[in-house]
Amino acid sequence: MAPASAVRCAAVASLALGTAALNLADGAHGGGQAGTLAGERAGPADIIPDDLWAVHDLLLAGYTAPFMKEGAGKQEARQSAVKLARLLPQVHPHGPCRARIGAALEGWDPVAEPERRAGVTAAAREAWACLPGNFTEASFSTPYTEEAIDSLAKAQWARMPSVKQRLGACEGSQWPRTCSYWSAMHTMAHRADQLELGAQFLGAVMPILAGGATLCGGCTLHMRALHAPVLTEAMATGLGELF
After folding, report:
1. How far apart are CA 58 and CA 187, in angstroms?
2. Superkingdom of the source (predicted)?
3. Taking CA 66 as the corner, what is the angle to CA 61 and CA 72, rounded to the nearest 5 degrees?
4. pTM to 2 decimal places
């Protein structure tokens, strides 16, 4: 479990997006408009449910753990994707997503590899379909698909997708997946804090990011350096090749 200080840091960071998180929690579209005007800076109040599309990628890329060598560290990253999937029916900021992901995982018992993978991929599919934009592979230039779990070439191909649908705070971002990740993780962290699930949420997300879910070598190295005290030995020593 992460140290209390790390949990407090996550709580402090999540409060910066509190208003947006609260608005999203009941299924509303946040406080802003879809797509800010040119020259305007988007802020937390501009986050809408469709900005959270990359929860799908956080699950699949997290389960892939593309930057981890085979071994205990990679398995920890994959288990963390399982933990995040199990938390989503409680911590996803968009109410319909909590319901749909929960229904998709009903009766899920992730005790072995086939069951773990099946649940993560089912949650990922719903994390697209549950949003107002009803995202599909056609919504992206290079979508991250389930096939990428078994193919680093396909994971690398999907490292920088563009989004074809209108967004809110992330409209026009040059780093679409990163913007969605941070919108999703901060709003989920806020809800997790409210539900006293902050430590569980942080414990799930940290190994996912350390394993390469951003699909960015430099980003991963910086994340691992900043959070080295809370990474397990398996995660710290299990890093493989980056791209």
Report:
1. 14
2. Eukaryota
3. 105
4. 0.86
> CA nearest 87: which of 54, 47, 127, 115?
127
Cβ(36)–Cβ(169) under 8 Å? yes
**pLDDT tens-digit map of 185-226:** 999 999 999 999 999 999 999 999 999 999 999 999 999 999
- CA-to-CA separations, 197 to 87, 93, 184, 200, in angstroms, rounded: 9, 14, 16, 5
Read off the tokens for 193: 């804090």
Instruction: Evaluate whether 166 touches 180 at the Cβ level (below 8 Å).
Output: no
| Continuous H helices in the chain | 4-15, 18-25, 55-64, 72-91, 95-104, 113-129, 152-157, 176-194, 198-210, 217-226, 233-237
Q: How far, in whole angstroms, is CA 185 from its chain's centroid?
A: 6
Q: How far apart are CA 12 and CA 130, in angstroms?
A: 28
